[in-house]
Amino acid sequence: MLNIVIFGPPGSGKGTHSVKLAEKKQLYHLSTGDIFRSQIVNKTILGLEAKQYMDKGALVPDDLVIKVLLSTLENQKDAKGFIFDGFPRTIIQAQKLDDELNKKGIPLKLVISLKVNDEEIIKRLVKRGIDSGRTDDNEAVIKQRIDVYNKQTAPLLDYYTRQNKLLCIDGFGEIEDIFANICKIIDENIK
Ligand code: AMP
C-alpha cells in the first residue's frame, strides 16, 4: 500500500502530477476539489454548501471535507494506495488522515511539496481560468486562495517535517522534468 500526499499552493501543479502519478503507480487519485466540483455540477447538498466557500476562495469546513475522505476510503477498499491531492489543507484534516490510515495499518508514506512562487501561481491560474472557465480562477479569488494557503495550509509543512515525511520539489519548469523528479524522489525514498 502506497499512500502519498501531493502538497503545494494552488496552481503548483498538484492536480497534473497527481493524475500522472496515480496512472503510473496504479493508485487511486483522491482530489477533494474535483469531488466538490462534481458535487456542484450534480447540485447535491454537499456541492451547494461547498460552493459557498469555494467561490470566495475560502476552505470548505473540515467536517465536510472529512466526510468526503471517509466515504472515499470506504468505497475504495480495493485500492492499492492513494494519491491525496489538495487534501489535507488543515492540521485537523492531517490528523484525521493519520488516524484513519494508521487505524487501517496503511500509514502515509510521503508528502511531496511542490514549490512555486506567487507570481508564477497567479500567471498559471489566470490562464487556467480563461481556458477552463473555473470560476475561482480569477485574480481576486486567486489572491485570497494564496493567503488561505499561507495561513491555514502551509503550517502542515512543519507537521510533516516533524514526521520526517516531507520532500520538496521545484515545481517551476517543464511538466515532464518535474514529473521525472517526483518519480525519482519517490523511488529513492520508498524501499
Ligand atoms: P482545488 O481543486 O484543490 O484547488 O480546490 C478548490 C477549492 O475547493 C479550494 O479553494 C477550497 O475551497 C475547496 N477545497 C478543496 N479541497 C479542500 C480541502 N481539503 N479542505 C478545504 N477546502 C478544500
Please describe the structure with a list of short key phrases separated by commas or semicolons.
single chain; 191 residues; alpha/beta; Rossmann fold; binds adenosine monophosphate
Would you write up a description of this structure?
The protein has 191 residues and is an alpha/beta fold. The protein has a single domain (2-189), classed as 3-Layer(aba) Sandwich (Rossmann fold). The protein is built from 9 helices and 5 strands; from the N terminus they run E-H-E-H-H-H-E-H-E-H-H-H-E-H. A 5-stranded parallel sheet has the order 2-3-1-4-5. Helix 2 packs across helix 3. It starts with a strand and ends with a helix. The site of adenosine monophosphate has 18 residues, from helix 2 and helix 3. Residues 10, 32-33, 36, 53-54, 57-60, 65, 86-89, 93, 136, 145 line the site of adenosine monophosphate.
